[in-house]
Amino acid sequence: MSTNSKQNVITAVAIIVALIAVVYAFVIQTKTPSTDMVAEENAAAESVAEENYEEGEQNPVVMTIDGRDVTRMEVMDNFASSGSQLPQGADMEQIFPLLQEQYLISYLLDNAARNSGVNGTDPEVAKRIEEARQQAIRAVYIDQVSEEGVTDADIRQAYDDIIGNSEPVMERRARHILVDSEAKAMDIITQLQNGANFEDLARDNSTGPSSQTGGDLGYFAASEMVPAFAQSAFTMNVGDVSSTPVKTQFGYHVIKVEDERERAKPTFEEMKEQLAQQLRQGVIRKKIEDLRTTSNVMVYDYNGNPVVRPEAEEAGAPVADGSDTPVTTEGAEEQSGAVAPAPSPADNAGETDATTEE
After folding, report:
1. Residue 102: enclosing H or E segment and its boundaries?
2. Are 217 and 354 spatial neighbours (Cβ–Cβ below 8 Å)?
3. Which helix (H) or strand (E) holds 4?
4. What pTM, to 2 d.p., does this model score?
5. Distance CA 282, CA 124 (A)
6. Strand partners for 262
7. Which partner from 16, 150, 232, 259 sits 20 to 30 angstroms from 50, CA to CA?
8. How far is CA 24 from CA 27, 30, 45, 78, 113, in A?
9. Which of 305, 300, 329 is nearest to 317 (CA)?
10. In sequence order, what are the residues at sequence separation of 6 or more whose Cβ sits closer than 8 angstroms to the Cβ of residue 17?
11. Would you say 238 and 212 are in contact if contact means Cβ atoms under 8 Å apart?
């Protein structure tokens, strides 16, 4: 990709993120000033750095807009308030220009909106503020219900149930030499039978990326390999080299099995947050179903005709017959809050190499 193309992509991403931030800022604004307060709002906006963002060694000035210094903390806080999140492992120095662009666009649009007279008295702004308030109330309530409904003991029990019911996963460590013809594979097998070094032959002949490490695929489970390769690797004895080539869609493999072990199960700490999230989702689903059963809900179709939900019909509720009497549904099918087991973390990068190479 050319430098100009990369710059265009970066600019486009920055604009999109910035616009989201600006909309969000308008929505969550709770102050409702009169039209006579526009000048005061502008003055307050211009002095925010002096009031809340004291410049210092840990908070340097990173921008100047119309003579006003903007500190690093202002830029970071603006990004956080937009509801956006940095990609995991992101290099802050590399991504910081995008955050600066986001701040600049937000600042310019905020000022332009205030100068044009758009403020809390505008009907559309007031409408969006109210919508945001309702959303915030629901979100806080859901957070409270989910947090109160899941204890550390619940998380521990879910972990114990998953680990206790999970079958052990056996892994094998193997090397392989991948070539494009059966004749080449047979020639390599002959060389190995005559005492040649497997790793040397892999480096010199294998067409797969693991050739650089002597064909080492690391540890893998049978389910992580294509069937033909897994069948061979898991039926050979540890230390054996395949006596005939193994054909897959990638070519012909010569396999050497080096070790076998049981895959370590994930620890409680590794699964704790995932389990907590899943349990909280179950609590929320259960709460919604409880609210359904205690509410008198009348359901109509797109044209206003009475209908009945399948779960209500199963529970014995009257079926819509086209009359003017609305159908009441007072229950819904109970949803399970069961937690699905988390996949085991990969032991090394070799697993990815194996699944794409063999």
Report:
1. helix 92-115
2. yes
3. helix 3-28
4. 0.50
5. 36
6. 170
7. 16
8. 5, 12, 17, 11, 14
9. 329
10. 82, 84, 98, 102
11. no
Specify the domain boundaries for CATH 3.10.50.40 within the chain.
149-292+342-358
Tens of pLDDT, residues 178-191: 999 999 999 999 99
Q: pLDDT (tens digit, 9 = 90+) per residue, 272-319? A: 999 999 999 999 999 999 999 999 988 899 899 988 766 555 554 443
Q: Find out whether 225 and 205 touch, Cβ atoms under 8 Å.
A: no
Q: How many CA atoms lie within 13 A of 86 on its CB side?
A: 16
Map tokens 């014995």 to a residue: 316
Triad 59, 65, 69: Cα angle to 5°: 30
With residue 178 as reference, give the H or E element that holds it.
strand 170-179
CATH 3.10.50.40 fits 149-292+342-358, yes or no: yes
CA-based max dimension of the chain: 94
Residue 66 CA to residue 316 CA, distance in Å, equals 70
Rounded distance between C-alpha atoms, residue 119 and residue 134, angstroms: 20
Residue type, 218: G
